[in-house]
Every structure is written in structure tokens, then in C-alpha cells.
Design brief:
Layout: E1 19-22, E2 25-28, H1 31-43, H2 47-63, H3 70-75, H4 79-86, H5 100-112, H6 116-133, H7 136-149, H8 161-175
Antiparallel strand pairs: 1-2
Helix pairs in contact: 4-8, 5-6, 6-7
């Protein structure tokens, strides 16, 4: 009685499957063996190719140096104020077509409708516009309500809002000339 031949019996090695056949006997290839086979193909490069690869790796390391953003440069060494403003303030709030009071009304309406995610976003918009207007009390009010809706999200601007708003006003005066 003859054995039935499978699809893989004709091929010598199946690199992508877990079972391969060689000389009509099943070979079980583990993931480790497959990885070794793949890495051998990578490392069978000539000496010149190895040198080129090292040069590319060095170039990538040089390019990854950190550059300061305008806000980081403006805040200087005051990391706490930078963290407070980086997620809360708008860099150019003139491009936002909604007023602070309209955003707050929309947030209250959505909060009553129990759509808390959208309400939180509208409170964040209202808080960002309050930063632009320089109203620290409104910043505390709007970001406080946003934090109350979503307690898992913390706003560092609530720690020192007056200092953050003052720094943001300096930033706006320097970079947003009307």
C-alpha cells in the first residue's frame, strides 16, 4: 500500500509553516529554528554591506537628538509649567471659531445629556480659550469640571493655574502679534 503524498512532501523546507518535509519525513520546525534561518540570511552579507549598515545606524543616532519646541524654550527650566501648558493651551487660539462661553454652554448641554466624553472635550476647549483670555478662575472652573467628569485624566494646570496663565500670556504676546 502506498502512502498518500501531501502538498509539502514535494518541497524540501517550508520556511513559513511549522511542519516541513525533507526526504518524505516530517520535520518539525520550531519558531527558534525559523528565526535562525531568517537571521542567517540577514547576516550573510559581505563585509562592505556590514560596514554600510553600521554607518546607517550611526546616522540615525545623530538625527535622534532632542530639539526644543518653542514652548519648551519659552518655559525654560520650569518643567512643571511646561507640562501644565503643553496639554492645555492652544498655540494659536485665533483659529478656533467658537467662543469660550459658547464652548462652556455646549459642554453643559452635553453633560446634562449624559454624553460625558464630548462634554469633557468641550470643557477642555473652553479651558484652553480661558488661558488665551488670561482668566485663571475660568481655567480652574473648566478644567476642574473636565477632571470631575473624567477622574482618570489629571490636568497639571490645576496645581498652579495663575503661574501657567501668566506664562501663556507672555507666550501669546511674543508669538501672536495681532
Amino acid at each position: 500500500m502506498k502512502k498518500k503524498r501531501g502538498i509539502f512532501e514535494r518541497s524540501k523546507v517550508n520556511l513559513y509553516g511549522m511542519i516541513a518535509y525533507k526526504e518524505n519525513k516530517p520535520l518539525k520546525l520550531t519558531i527558534a529554528i525559523l528565526e535562525r534561518i531568517k537571521t542567517r540570511r540577514v547576516f550573510n552579507l559581505g563585509l562592505l554591506d556590514r560596514f554600510r549598515r553600521k554607518e546607517k545606524e550611526q546616522e540615525i543616532q545623530v538625527e535622534s537628538e532632542k530639539s526644543l519646541t518653542e514652548l519648551e524654550g519659552f518655559c525654560g527650566r520650569d518643567q512643571e509649567t511646561y507640562e501644565a501648558l503643553s496639554n492645555a493651551m492652544f498655540l494659536d487660539p485665533r483659529k478656533i471659531d467658537v467662543s469660550m462661553s459658547a464652548a462652556a454652554k455646549e459642554a453643559k448641554k452635553l453633560e446634562k445629556a449624559k454624553d460625558f466624553v464630548r462634554a469633557r472635550v468641550w470643557y477642555e476647549i473652553a479651558g484652553g480659550l480661558a488661558i488665551y483670555e488670561g482668566d485663571a478662575k475660568k481655567v480652574i472652573e473648566y478644567f476642574g469640571k473636565s477632571e470631575k467628569i473624567s477622574p482618570e485624566i489629571k490636568y497639571p494646570i490645576l496645581k498652579k493655574p495663575k503661574k501657567a496663565v501668566a506664562k501663556a500670556q507672555e507666550y501669546y504676546k511674543k508669538y501672536l502679534k495681532d
